[in-house]
Write a structure and sequence with these properties.
Elements: H1 2-8, H2 31-38, E1 47-49, E2 56-58, H3 59-64, H4 79-86, E3 92-94, H5 113-124, E4 130-137, E5 140-147, H6 158-174, E6 178-181, H7 192-211, E7 216-220, E8 224-225, H8 226-229, E9 238-241, E10 247-248, H9 252-259, H10 270-275, E11 281-282, H11 288-307
Parallel strand pairs: 5-6, 6-7, 7-9, 8-10, 9-11
Antiparallel strand pairs: 1-2, 3-4, 4-5
Length: about 300
Amino acid sequence: MALADDKRKKPGPPAPIAGRERGGWLAKFAPGVRKLVSKRETPENLWVKCPDTGEMIYRSDLEASLWVTPAGRHMKIRPPLRFSYTFDNGRFRTIALPVMADDPLGFAYGKPYKDSLAAARKTTGENDAMAAAAGEIGGMTTVALVQDFAFLGGSMGASAGEAFLAAVDEAVRMEAPFVVFPASGGMRMQEGTLSLMQMARTTVAIQKLRQARLPYVVVLTDPTTGGALASYAMLGDVCLAEPGATVGFAGRRVIEQTIRETLPPGFQTSEFLVERGMVDRVVARKELPAVLGSILRTLMTGRQRLVA
């Protein structure tokens, strides 16, 4: 009986202390509110990693600096931002560009070329790698063409070539300077010879600007390589470049293996090339509108005198 009484009198768990009920103070709230308070959602793109230093940069700070990191890296930007940063007060008019037939060769490389185009369009929201707009730069009405590296590496196919020609025609119609921001890995070889033809077509289109005595200015961005560099990217009346941009035809490793020599440090950077006369000037992104405005006003003044 004594053992039975001991079991009966065994104390239970201590009573909860006021304010320390199961679940804590959050238990007083509705389940939905408790979940909201206890778990704060953090946007995935809140921080951006600097490719040079590995530093994590607060996205809003990077946007305020025009996507230039504290280390000076000018990060790749899409056409809408490029237009906004370049045109006066961020105001511009988008130019409609022609649309070409997709996949003229029925090309497949592991997966159909059409699937790659569809994925790129879904990711970027653009039809192809070129975007054009008109607005004022330094008070000068200008047509600008921006190559989007996010669209299949900014590769140049028939549709991109048609876009270049259409933008040139618009500049001639408006009697306005033409500014191009290349960013390309080269020609789009899924279109074979049709892609290579765009090198000649863009070169011929630039002659229209020459005949109309309109300035053609190129701003090399990271990266500008391959057939883009071998054609329209090197034909500007003035050739500017953003700091640290990779500019070259073939990659460093390919060149070293071909000539069997070690290339100097900084080879194929805009700073290296400006020292050797291939680029006229390296200009930071925040200074580009003022520099472009000054150049365009000077070149257009010369044109007006010739016309008069």
